[in-house]
């Protein structure tokens, strides 16, 4: 089987060669722009690696992998309208570059294109793969809606937050590995286990994303404290809210819109509370816990453990454990 | 086979029973609201009637018919955002009632739901039906983009206008009859012919819609002259532009935003030009021509002509020919 670097390059080539009509330009140009914007290609990698666990021909999963990546990019396109986000992966978002209507409609065309790619799977597997894809796609929408709902709520529990990211982040990873496994010929039992693996991996991955926003390295490209300045409910924030006394909660609720404070002061104030409540450490613990669970499930598949090595390495490259 | 009234009522029941989760409410409530908004159910009727030409069991096409109607309602939901339309079928649009973000995301979930309904077709037909659905769906997006492009263009030819409505209106009707025919067991040749039928019917139907906006009966619910007041490029407008001399064109281009005129005066001014250029009559001729072509193709199917009677009656109920 190809190395992970080779798989990544095969995916990039396949996406770059996905043929899009030239006209109408405002419908299709944003799709090419969005697809060429880079990113980790995490989801198609999971499709390919999952297929490779059960089959020596991981490349057969390429159309489905591209479908999943196309769908993911569609969600980013529409999310950027809803979040009013002008920048995506260091470039203007489609929304910022072409405006709202183009972003809505080319996003729609992008979702349809993902189903078109998906229709390239072997006909005998199409019914179950389409059903899995649909379920996954709806869950991602549910997650995005809950995420938007949370911004309007004064209080969100840790349990509700975890449920939201299970839908918004893990569902797509879970669907990706399930589709890869089906294509590779996995048993239903192994398919279920891989979904559990991806679910836990997705939680670890999202919590790490939340953590890096407050405690990451600015050189890695992401500005520190953006979530705090937006008053966003992250794992860190909902954990802090659940552990704080009422006066501290009030500070957490208000700091981000306190006009007397500079951005740096707001970030410092919230992080002081996080530190006092041990939020960083608790988040790191949760990431480790979820990641360990993911690896344990991966190890329980009914295949020669050597076949899961590449997936394990890939998962380890995604999540940085601090114990 | 059921009468057309019975088919309609079966479709309404099926749509009403389509199960939607209760939560998150802002994702799913707009879907139920949109689906229950009525309308002619033209597209699902075409799926059922097309299936009924080839099979005595038209009801087998119900999930696919619902999928096509769900998709159509999704397009209305997103079109209303793009067109900033506050009213849909006499009720507030989803966009007006719940806001833009809810309309975007519940529209997305609605499109996914249409694919979920589609996945209920017999597995052996799924690959070709999914491919047909995807092609149709992309064409509808292309049509909507051309329609938006046209609003920015000083001049649109009649040929370009017809191409746009082939995509925006006819593609969905053509996909609907093709899917119905496949489910009924039609030959490829009959399937192609039915698509041609639906394409011509769709053109007649859209041109009639354009005509009614300027020459319809206000009692039928649609206000007269809305397209004229919006400066919209309809078949009447592009035909008038193609026949007018330059000074008259300038009047046509400017009247709708002439602030010295009342709405009634704007409408009267444009219709005077239409009348002078024989636009009404030419449009009626084009509707008859397209409708006659549709019926001729319908008559050429390789089935007992009695089997096409119901489809013929239904088509006749849609288009009012003035000869």
Automatic annotation (TrEMBL), chains A, B:
InterPro entries registered for this protein in UniProt: Isoprenoid_synthase_dom_sf, Polyprenyl_synt, Polyprenyl_synt_CS
One GO molecular-function entry: prenyltransferase activity
One GO-annotated biological process of the protein: isoprenoid biosynthetic process
Pfam families: polyprenyl_synt
Extent of the signal sequence: none
Swiss-Prot/TrEMBL keywords: Isoprene biosynthesis, Magnesium, Metal-binding, Transferase
Highest taxon in the source lineage: Bacteria
Family annotation (CDD domains): Trans_IPPS_HT (cd00685)
Record Gene3D superfamilies: Farnesyl Diphosphate Synthase
Cofactor(s), by name: Mg(2+)
Family to which the UniProt record says this protein belongs: Belongs to the FPP/GGPP synthase family.
PANTHER family: FARNESYL DIPHOSPHATE SYNTHASE
Protein name (record): Isoprenyl synthetase
């Amino acid at each position: 089987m190809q190395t992970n670097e080779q798989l990544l390059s095969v995916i990039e080539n396949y996406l770059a060669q996905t043929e899009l009509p030239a006209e109408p330009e405002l419908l299709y140009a944003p799709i090419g722009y969005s697809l060429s914007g880079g990113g980790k290609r995490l989801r198609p990698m999971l499709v390919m690696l999952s297929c490779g666990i059960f089959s020596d021909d991981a490349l057969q999963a390429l159309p489905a992998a591209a479908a999943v990546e196309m769908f993911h990019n569609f969600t980013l396109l529409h999310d950027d309208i809803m979040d009013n986000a002008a920048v995506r992966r260091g470039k203007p978002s489609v929304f910022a570059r072409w405006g709202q209507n183009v972003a809505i409609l080319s996003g729609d065309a992008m979702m349809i294109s993902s189903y078109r790619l998906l229709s390239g799977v072997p006909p005998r597997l199409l019914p179950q793969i389409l059903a899995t894809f649909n379920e996954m796609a709806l869950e991602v929408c549910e997650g995005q809606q809950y995420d938007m709902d949370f911004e309007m709520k004064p209080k969100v529990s840790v349990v509700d937050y975890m449920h939201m990211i299970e839908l918004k982040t893990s569902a797509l990873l879970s669907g990706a590995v399930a589709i890869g496994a089906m294509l590779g010929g996995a048993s239903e039992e192994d398919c279920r286990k891989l979904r559990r693996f991806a679910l836990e991996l997705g939680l670890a991955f999202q919590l790490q994303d939340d953590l890096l926003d407050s405690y990451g390295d600015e050189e890695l490209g992401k500005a520190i404290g953006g979530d705090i300045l937006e008053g966003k409910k992250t794992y860190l924030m909902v954990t802090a809210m659940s552990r704080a006394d009422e006066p501290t909660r009030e500070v957490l609720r208000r700091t981000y819109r306190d006009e007397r404070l500079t951005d740096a002061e707001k970030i410092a104030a919230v992080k002081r509370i996080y530190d006092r409540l041990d939020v960083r450490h608790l988040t790191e613990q949760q990431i480790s816990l979820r990641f360990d669970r993911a690896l344990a499930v991966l190890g329980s598949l009914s295949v020669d453990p050597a076949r899961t090595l590449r997936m394990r390495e890939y998962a380890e490259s995604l999540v940085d454990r601090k114990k």
